[in-house]
Design brief:
Distance between the termini: 53 Å
Low-confidence stretches: 20-29
Bound molecules: ligand L4NPZUNZ, 2-oxoglutaric acid, fe (ii) ion
Order of helices and strands: HHHEEHEHHHEEHEEEEEEHEEEEH
CATH class: Mainly Beta
CATH topology: Jelly Rolls
Radius of gyration: 20 Å
Oligomer: single chain
Strand order of the largest sheet: 2-3-11-8-13-6-5-4
Shape: globular
Number of domains: 1
Structural class: alpha+beta
Number of helices: 10
CATH superfamily: B-lactam Antibiotic, Isopenicillin N Synthase, Chain
């Protein structure tokens, strides 16, 4: 059989040799709930924030905060990212991942941000059947890192600018609802401290229980996600996995660990995962609103649940945990 691109089966054959048997093994600790039928996430029309009517603006702002506390996730309509830009981004993303594996892995493309599978996995349930470019936006203005993908540079700049505007709008509503000036986070988060993650989940020929992306919470303030029509994203709600039905007019927004810490647990960073699809490949794009590495993340109100930490310290801790134990521990490491 020709090797797939990326060679996930070949590269991880030992780990994935008997997926059915080993899934019952000791590291099998994530299936705490069964998938409910697809459940509609709170769907919020952002035109409410632009209304002349004060009451409408308030209703929309409260809906964003309530969803961020109760679900940690919500979907937004009239988000301002034009469909043509999403289509251009999708075309470039598909072209990028169709490149020969050797080029993706060794060309240093996009600031050498290419990753595939999970080198640190010690059992199938720590393995993600995916490939991704985790691009620091500080670097995307450098033409050198694009090779022949010069148009990709143009599209990514346009896309990340639009996403940055939306992320700032949403973060502004969330911090204002906690009694702070809407731009309080803007001095620690800016275009150059954020990340764009291009995900591709190839069709997966092994166990249907294989993860496209392992259960995790995001290590940022908030994430704005565009998923395609294939589906597979699930989030944890009341100890059950809830599938997120694809809605091409909507973008998905989820609270990250840093906003949970900053809000002193008012907003929840909720576990989510992607289940692999046996027949169809799937693409998604995630924009991560992140502060600079030296920014101190403290609680916006006392008494604080967590000790203060810098984003750099947090990322190092996550990577150390993933290296040491194969999975992310996250915020619980920083409880006072
Ligand atoms: C193996 C892992 C790396 C990751 C945490 C995880 O346990 C699973 C998801 C990964 C991810 C995806 C989105 C973000 O880029 C990230 C920082 C996060 O919060 O979850 C990465 C984590 C990482 O790269 O450390
Ligand atoms: O692809 C998806 O739907 C989710 C991706 C994700 O959770 C991430 O990149 O952090
Ligand atoms: Fe995520």
């Amino acid at each position: 059989m020709i090797d797939s691109n990326p060679p996930l089966l070949h590269g991880y054959k030992k780990l994935l040799r008997h997926p059915a048997e080993t899934l019952g093994g000791k590291c099998f600790d994530h299936e705490t709930g069964v998938v409910m039928e697809e459940c509609q996430l709170p769907l919020i029309d952002l035109n409410g924030l632009r209304s002349q009517n004060e009451k409408e603006r308030l209703t929309c702002s409260v809906a964003i905060s309530n969803a961020s506390s109760e679900w940690g996730f919500f979907q937004v309509l009239n988000h301002g990212i034009c469909p043509e830009l999403l289509r251009k981004m999708r075309r470039e993303q598909v072209k990028l991942f169709k490149m020969p594996f050797e080029m993706k892995a060794n060309s240093g493309l996009l600031n050498n941000s290419y990753r595939w599978g999970t080198p640190t996995a010690t059992c199938p349930h720590q393995f993600s059947w995916c490939e991704a470019f985790n691009i620091p936006l500080a670097k995307i203005s450098e033409a050198a890192c694009y090779g022949e993908f010069s148009f990709l540079r143009e599209v990514m700049n346009e896309f990340s600018e639009a996403m940055s505007k939306l992320a700032r709008l949403l973060a502004g509503v969330l911090v204002e609802n906690l009694g702070h000036p809407h731009d309080i986070l803007e001095d620690i988060c800016n275009e150059s401290t954020c990340f764009l993650r291009l995900n591709h989940y190839p069709a997966c020929p092994i166990s249907p229980e294989t993860f496209g992306l392992v259960p995790h919470t995001d290590s940022d303030f908030l994430t704005i996600l565009h998923q395609d029509q294939v589906g597979g994203l699930q989030l944890m709600k009341d100890s059950k996995w809830v599938a997120v039905k694809p809605n091409q007019d909507a973008l998905i927004v989820n609270i990250g660990d840093l906003f949970q810490a900053w809000s002193n647990d008012v907003y929840q960073s909720v576990e989510h995962k992607v289940v692999a699809n046996g027949k169809m490949g799937r693409y998604s794009i995630a924009y991560f609103l992140c502060p600079s590495y030296d920014s101190l993340i403290g609680s916006s109100r006392e008494p604080s649940v967590y000790r203060k930490f810098t984003f750099g310290e947090y990322r190092n801790e996550v990577q150390e945990d993933v290296k040491r134990s194969g999975r992310k521990i996250g915020l619980s490491r920083f409880i006072l």
